[in-house]
């Protein structure tokens, strides 16, 4: 499948994330010549490997780092959506405590940016907890903080609770296909960006379900005493 994510150059931040994860897990030598075209099966395989703790850099990077090579720069601007365009979202099983009060079945956690989908899987595989729902101050924040996340992984200061909300227990271990691909319009995704979730009718076999995109948290300044 040829993906149509909101960010057309999604491969660069995704590879930067994997390079940082390589450093985090003690294999910093694997830094260049990422060998995958990141088609659908590759993303599914990466997600499953990261979530199970079976990710191995030498399966995805062909040679070791040369002296002086650096991480890729990651854009911080939020992609602009076209309302009648169909976009692909990645979906993981899971729900948070607030979803219990919404109508419709729990569809799962969706990601407009595959960077966060694979990072969520790494959280599960490395910390054994469902830190999978991005926790942000607004809908521009997830794009702005990606470089910070990459740097924190590289420096071994990354803590998933800073960037994700822990979700309720789910059927992760019994799922054959962990990662699903959803298609929605730009106008639907725009609405999800604004409120963090939406109830969507996808197709007859899926029915109506509520999907979470973000958990909105107040900026740190809001928590400071006046």
Question: What key attributes describe this structure?
Answer:
226 residues; 3-stranded mixed β-sheet; 5-stranded mixed β-sheet; disordered C terminus; single chain; 6 helices
Can you walk me through this structure?
- This protein has 226 residues and is α+β, with helices and mostly antiparallel strands.
- It has one domain (11-71, 78-218).
- The chain has helices at residues 11-24, 40-52, 114-127, 141-144, 146-154, 186-195; strands at residues 32-34, 61-63, 86-92, 105-111, 131-136, 164-166, 180-185, 197-201, 208-212, 215-216.
- A hairpin with a 6-residue loop joins strand 8 (197-201) and strand 9.
- Helix 1 (11-24) runs parallel beside helix 3, helix 1 (11-24) packs parallel to helix 5 and helix 2 runs parallel beside helix 3 (114-127).
- The longest helix has 14 residues, at 11-24.
- It is globular.
- The N and C termini lie far apart (52 Å).
């Amino acid at each position: 499948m040829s993906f149509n994510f909101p960010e057309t150059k999604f491969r660069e931040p995704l590879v930067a994330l994997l390079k940082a994860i390589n450093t985090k897990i003690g294999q910093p030598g694997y830094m260049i010549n990422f060998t995958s075209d990141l088609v659908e099966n590759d993303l599914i395989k990466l997600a499953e490997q990261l979530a199970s703790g079976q990710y191995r850099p030498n399966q995805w990077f062909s040679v070791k780092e040369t002296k002086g090579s650096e991480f890729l720069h990651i854009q911080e601007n939020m992609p602009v959506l076209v309302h009648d365009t169909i976009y692909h979202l990645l979906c993981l099983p899971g729900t948070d405590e607030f979803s219990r009060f919404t109508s419709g079945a729990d569809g799962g956690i969706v990601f407009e940016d595959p960077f966060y989908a694979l990072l969520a899987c790494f959280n599960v595989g490395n910390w054994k907890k469902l830190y999978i729902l991005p926790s942000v101050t607004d809908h521009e924040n997830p794009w702005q903080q990606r470089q910070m996340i990459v740097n924190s992984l590289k420096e071994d200061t990354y803590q998933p609770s800073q960037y994700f909300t822990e979700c309720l227990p789910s059927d992760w271990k019994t799922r054959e296909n962990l990662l699903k691909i959803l298609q929605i319009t730009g106008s639907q995704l725009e609405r999800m960006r604004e409120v963090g979730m939406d109830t969507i009718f996808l197709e007859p076999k899926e029915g109506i379900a509520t999907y979470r995109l973000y958990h909105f948290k107040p900026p740190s300044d809001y928590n400071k005493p006046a």
